[in-house]
Amino acid sequence: TGAPDLLVVGSGFFGLTIAERCATELGLTVQVIDRRPHIGGNAYSEADPETGIEVHRYGAHLFHTSNRRVWEYVNRFTDFTPYQHRVYTTFRGEVFPMPINLGTINQFQRAAYSPDEARAWVTEQAAQITHAPTNLEEKAISLIGRPLYEAFIQGYTAKQWQTDPRELGADIISRLPVRYTYDNRYFSDTYEGLPVDGYTAWIERMADHPNITVTLDTDFFDETQPFNKLACVGTTPVVYTGPVDRYFDGVHGDLSWRTLDFETEVLPTGDFQGTPVMNYADTDVTHTRVHEFRHFHPERDHPADQTVIMREFSRAAEADDEPYYPVNTPQDRERLLAYRELAKGETDVLFGGRLGTYQYLDMHMAIGSALSMFDNLIAPHFTDGVPLT
Ligand code: FAD
Ligand code: NA
Q1: Which atom of ligand 1 is nearest to the CA of 354?
Q2: Which terminus of the chain is less hemmed in, N or C, by CB atoms within 10 Å?
Q3: 44 Cα nearest atom in ligand 1
Q4: How far is CA 223 from each of CA 2, 237, 243, rounded to the nearest angstrom?
Q5: pTM of the full predicted structure?
Q6: Which residues on adjacent β-strands are paired with residue 291?
């Protein structure tokens, strides 16, 4: 056996894109480890045992991109359905289309505004904040006015952050898009769809190469396990996609994250909510949204009298929670800069992915950034001996 040419820590989209390119393009042997019992990172999905319905274990994952290279790359491993994402929100016992659009405004106002009339109404409401906004609430009102803010932003944001929006920074939002058409398609990217055979089949095909070995239940920081940090760094080149602060033992302090709790339930009905994702804007409902997975794949055969729903709750992550969204406070940004300096000095170790760079990355961004790292750093290292830093 012997040492692999490259060790990849983390089997999410970033790590697997690196592994696949190195094996296919350079003929390298690649060892991938993951501390979880499954491949695929947060994009992992599996069939619910009772109903067979595909459940995204770490929250609904919708694939979309305008990057042609990424689209062509991912199509080597899976076909995509023509799924287009749309979201609705429940507020005070009424359902509205999201993101805020002409349909939302007209339903909210019991009106038949034209695009210009709706724009004039929003502008008039937004003009009520005349000073520079000092918190998220004022910023939101300056963008869309108080009525739409109170209905669609206030409660949802308070639940997402477990904080009154008046205590959140104005810089958390830079824009709140309002569409003055009836278009309620969630994404505006050129390419969108869901993997025909599910995420896990796609991910497994990326790892399906004779030069790639994936070992699960293996933590890079557990020195009793193979391919740990102490044993490998300095002897084997490493691409590390775990949390950057954890790599350096938190010497500059912990980076803060929000996490999500998910409550999955099988219900005895063929259709619970008639749509894949329903947001809940009221604060007396404690979850932020409900996913109903059968609606992501209307082309599949599903049970006529059973459905799987997943309620999502948002909160600050503690030490043992899964890190999902960077909080990105000024202190986090300062710490991140210090970790980046340490990462630069770590020879033969590259940091990538959402945890390794402390950035929210959509799947297409994680894949695109792995393709760039392969082109710019990894291929030059293995073909021309350029140092890996
Ligand atoms: P991850 O998928 O997180 O993979 C990192 C892997 O590293 C994990 O498997 C982890 O177990 C492993 N690891 C960490 N530490 C260690 C260690 N010490 N030893 C061994 N292994 C370790 N993107 C979209 O495009 N559309 C969406 O709709 C979408 N929805 C999302 C919803 C949620 C709730 C979240 C959190 C993300 C969503 N994303 C979505 C983003 C998508 O999940 C990421 O783009 C993708 O996960 C990034 O891949 P990654 O490889 O960087 O990280
Ligand atoms: Na480095």
Answers
A1: 52
A2: N
A3: 2
A4: 18, 18, 18
A5: 0.96
A6: 277, 310
Strands of 325-326's sheet in order across: 94-98, 87-91, 277-280, 289-292, 307-316, 257-267, 325-326
Task: Choose which residue among 44, 61, 249 to substitute to test ligand 1 binding: the one with the highest number of ligand atoms within 8 A of its C-beta.
Answer: 61
Q: Where residue 319 falls among pLDDT bands split at 50, 70, 90?
A: confident
Cβ 56 under 6 angstroms from ligand 1: no
- Predicted pLDDT at 122: 96
Ligand in nearest proximity to the CA of 389? 2
d(CA 242, CA 319): 14
Distance of CA 362 to the CA centre of its chain: 5
Which of 160, 200, 241 has most ligand 1 atoms within 8 Å of its beta carbon, as the pocket-test mutant? 241
Instruction: Count CA atoms closer than 13 A to 357's CA, side-chain side.
Output: 16
**Nearest ligand for residue 317 CA:** 1
DSSP state of 195: B
For the CA of 388, the nearest ligand: 2
Q: Lowest-pLDDT range, 40-49, 160-169, 256-265?
A: 160-169
pLDDT band at 217 (very low <50, low <70, confident <90, very high): very high
Is any ligand 1 atom within 6 A of the Cβ of residue 242?
yes
Q: Mapped to the 3 state alphabet, what secondary structure does 220-237 carry?
A: CCCCCCCCCHHHHCCCCC
Could you tell me the distance, in angstroms and rounded to a whole number, from the CA of residue 8 to the centre of ligand 1?
14
